[in-house]
Specification:
Blueprint: E1 14-19, E2 23-28, E3 32-37, E4 42-43, E5 46-47, H1 55-69, E6 78-83, E7 86-90, E8 93-94, E9 97-104, H2 107-114, E10 119-120, E11 123-124, E12 134-140, E13 143-144, H3 156-161, H4 167-190, E14 193-205, E15 208-212, E16 221-225, H5 229-234, E17 241-243, H6 245-253, H7 269-287, H8 299-311
Antiparallel strand pairs: 1-2, 2-3, 3-7, 4-5, 6-7, 8-14, 9-12, 9-13, 9-14, 10-11, 14-15, 14-16, 16-17
Length: 314
Amino acid sequence: MKALKETHFNFPNQSNFYKGKVRDVYTIADKFMVMVVSDRISAFDVVLTEAIPFKGQVLNQIAAKFLSATQDIVPNWVLDVPDPMVTIGRICEPFKVEMVIRGYLAGHAWREYSAGKRSVCGVSLPDGLKENDKLPQPIITPTTKASVGHDEDISKEDILAKGIVSISDYEQLEKYTFDLYQRGTEIAAKSGLILVDTKYEFGKADGVIYLIDEIHTPDSSRYFYAEGYEERQRTDEPQKQLSKEFVRKWLIENGFQGKDGQVIPEMTPEIVTSISERYIELYEQIVGEAFIKAEADAISTRIEANVLEALQTL
């Protein structure tokens, strides 16, 4: 299987290029952003050695679906989706925080809790919770956005005290975050899934707050299967989940958590294929339709042609 690990386009009126962990972002005439979602995969804020076929397509197409399904809640940055791996949108000035919202005690929050902490990002948690328990109510646990290295937990109080976001903007971000999570939860439930936790990124353009980047994808979210959830909790069994957590667990089991001196374990063809299949599984589960693999030969040529055609209409 072929995968898109990096791109090197030079579009008309291209004014900037930024290579993120998994996205290549091209700025056009300082007005539009062409976001190419590559097949790179990251975990613990480290880009892994092998790209995952069709991962970029899965992320981009799920994000497009959910951005469209939530635009009545908050306007978003998207102008066009000209290719299965590309989104074109308006340029926004990103807020320097990511709004992480959790309905269940899982992942990073559980690791903090199991280490004895009873406060995450300034939000208090009760004693007596087990891994993957439903929280009394969803909580927002923001992180700072790191251009390089690890994102860091931060409390609402610190965000406001440091002037990272104004009070009025932050209150609006909170409302959007709760409303988006509620909508995502409802959509997931229709597909037999639980939206465990997720993150949203926002930006501002001409005084308007926009939802930016991807939403409700396996890279930005964690899903459990609803069927059997209660029974698995009662018997202390691991939850069946669709998220990137299985990649993190594989890395942990092989001695890697992104810490200094640790080496990324070998990603064999079998591991790469299994990760690709899990991403496709989530797409089909949550979108409710068969995943149609985009043409894998000459991926860059296809993307360039589709983007050039789309830019002519913007």
